[in-house]
Amino acid sequence: MKTIVGILAAVIASVTLPAADPPGFAIWKAADLRSHDAALSTHVADDHSSRETLADYGDHRFRMLYRDADGNPEQHDAIIDVVMVHSGEGTLQLGGVMAGTRTTSAGEWLGTRLDGGDRHPLGPGDIVHIPAGVPHAFLVPQGKHLTYVLLKIPAARQK
């Protein structure tokens, strides 16, 4: 009996258990994102969007946004936007000049219109890096939607 117990103890001691995830680790599986997408589509506000913060780490955060119409143009003086398209289709209008500009907080701007700039079609799987200080807007065709995960990063981290 002692031999069996000794062998079992040796086997158990040699088994490597998976390490716990480090603090701050997060993973959003495709099925989880589909559930978030479906939920957001049922809570669309008057501005034709719905959003949820997936995680906020203080100096950067992940959000998921659903849009079923064009969004207002915006510009962030010190924030980089990284956009990962999850579902739907749309167009990123990038650059140009914002009209009807108002500040929403320090270094954050919203406009009523974006004149000029370039247009980039977007679809599932596309990833976009929008530098700080560049006006941009998400355009969504009538009857369609665009859902994306947005990572907001301080521009100073880019250096």
Description:
The termini are far apart. The protein is α+β, with helices and mostly antiparallel strands and 159 residues long. It is built from two helices and 13 strands; from the N terminus they run ααβββββββββββββ. Helix content is 15%, strand content 43%. Strands 1-2-13-4-11 form a five-stranded antiparallel sheet, covered by helices on one side. Strands 3-8-7 form a three-stranded antiparallel sheet, with no helix packed on it.
Query: Do you know the CATH topology?
Result: Jelly Rolls
The portion of residues forming beta strands comes to 35-45%
Task: Return the domain count.
Answer: 1
Helical content stands at 10-25%
Mean pLDDT: 90
Number of extended strands: 13
Succession of helices and strands: HHEEEEEEEEEEEEE
Q: Could you tell me the radius of gyration in angstroms?
A: 22 Å
